[in-house]
Write a structure and sequence with these properties.
Elements: H1 11-14, E1 19-21, H2 31-39, E2 44-47, H3 53-66, E3 71-76, H4 85-94, H5 96-102, H6 117-126, E4 131-135, H7 141-150, E5 153-158, H8 161-170, E6 174-178, E7 184-185, H9 204-212, E8 219-222, H10 228-237, E9 241-244, H11 246-249, H12 258-263, E10 272-275, E11 283-286, H13 289-294, H14 304-318, H15 341-359
Parallel strand pairs: 1-9, 2-3, 3-4, 4-5, 5-6, 6-8, 8-9
Antiparallel strand pairs: 7-11, 10-11
């Protein structure tokens, strides 16, 4: 399928600075953050993952009240129902003591695995936004084509050359390349239960070089980026913009839990690791007690493990204990700066300019 020129991501049409705020599901990517980033000349993003269609629609309305600048919405692709129920039951038994410890119940895992995808699509067809991105897979060509007709630019997250090619063949307007350094979930199109978390994955600069030779689409770079100099590097490597998540997680506008924000630079948390412990899918977070004790035993079962641990994670946060929270973070987390989101965009832009001048 060919990509229409109207659907291809052209950075100058949507942003002043090549800085995109990554969609962080779970609360961090709230309307206030997205609007502040867009107002500063970047591109703010809402994360529709885990939200009801009604909640997504309300957040879109809030962003429009806060800014007239372009912004994006990220959707999770439906997941195949291939998780092993027996493995989930074994993990439930393993976490029973954790539930007792925090005085809560483990969640039920019999719900749907499509994250209300079709209902969210219907809303975004009826009330289009400037950009829609997709994680955990590639949408059907007709979905991307319909968005193109509506004037919505589309982006598909990819972690490999094969996934980037699939996005191009389906008709995506751009590819967001996620290096293994990225915090939060790896946006792989398929989670192979035979793979150990961290056993696969390519560094961002290598991934850009590989994909640039394989596809013609604009490339957005994501993974471990915290400074303007790093943005200069990925742009020089062939990306048209950089997407940052952890850098914006600690801003005042971010909806992340205060314990999560503080943990980014807390000397207690020295490193990150990919784990299935909290959600059943590989995701990079700060190494805490829960990750160390349960990560090796978590099954490849998303979103069932996410559903199983949701109440537990919430209870730990309410108890003020970050040791059982999902502290998603990229490898550059120690470089986090507690600046207002708009000021952070301007700082990154100034650092980018300085890096380019130094190179020239």
């Amino acid at each position: 399928m060919s990509t229409s020129s109207s659907s291809v991501f052209e950075p100058t049409a949507l942003l002043t600075h090549p800085v995109i705020q990554a969609p962080m599901a779970g609360g961090a990517s709230c309307p206030g953050l997205a609007a502040a980033v867009s107002e500063a000349g970047g591109l703010g993003f809402l994360a529709a993952g885990y939200k009801t269609p009604e909640a997504m629609y309300e957040e879109v309305r809030q962003v429009r009240r806060l800014t007239g600048r372009p912004f994006g919405v990220n959707l999770f692709m439906p997941q195949p129902g291939t998780a092993d129920p027996a493995a989930i039951d074994v993990y439930r038994e393993r976490l029973a003591d954790e539930a007792t410890r925090y005085g809560t119940q483990l969640g039920e895992t019999g719900g749907t695995t499509d994250d209300a995808y079709e209902a969210k699509l219907a809303i975004l067809y009826d009330d289009p936004v400037p950009m829609v991105s997709f994680t955990f897979g590639c949408p059907a060509g007709e979905v991307l084509e319909r968005f193109a007709r509506l004037g919505t630019r589309t982006v598909v997250t990819a972690t490999s050359v094969a996934e980037a090619r699939a996005a191009q063949e389906a008709g995506a307007g751009a590819v967001c390349l996620q290096g293994v350094e990225a915090g939060g979930h790896q946006g792989t199109h398929r989670d192979d239960p035979r793979d150990e978390p961290g056993s696969a994955g390519v560094g961002l600069l290598t991934l850009i070089a590989q994909v640039r030779e394989a596809v013609r689409l604009p490339l957005i770079a994501s993974g471990g980026l915290m400074r303007g100099g790093q943005i200069a590097a990925v742009l020089a490597a062939g990306a048209v913009a950089a997407q940052l998540g952890t850098a914006f997680l600690v801003t005042p506008e971010s909806g992340a839990h205060p314990l999560h924000k503080r943990a980014m630079t807390d000397p207690l948390f020295t490193r990150t690791e990919l784990t299935r412990a909290f959600s059943g899918r590989p995701a990079r977070g700060l190494v805490n007690r829960f990750l160390r004790e349960h990560g090796p035993y978590a099954p490849a079962a998303y979103p069932q493990v996410h559903q199983l641990t949701a109440g537990l994670r919430r209870a730990a946060a309410e108890a003020g204990d970050p040791q059982a929270m999902a502290l998603w973070a990229g490898q550059g987390h120690r470089l986090a700066r507690e600046l207002p989101a708009g000021e952070l965009v301007e700082t990154l832009a100034a650092e980018l300019t300085a890096a380019r001048e130094a190179l020239s």
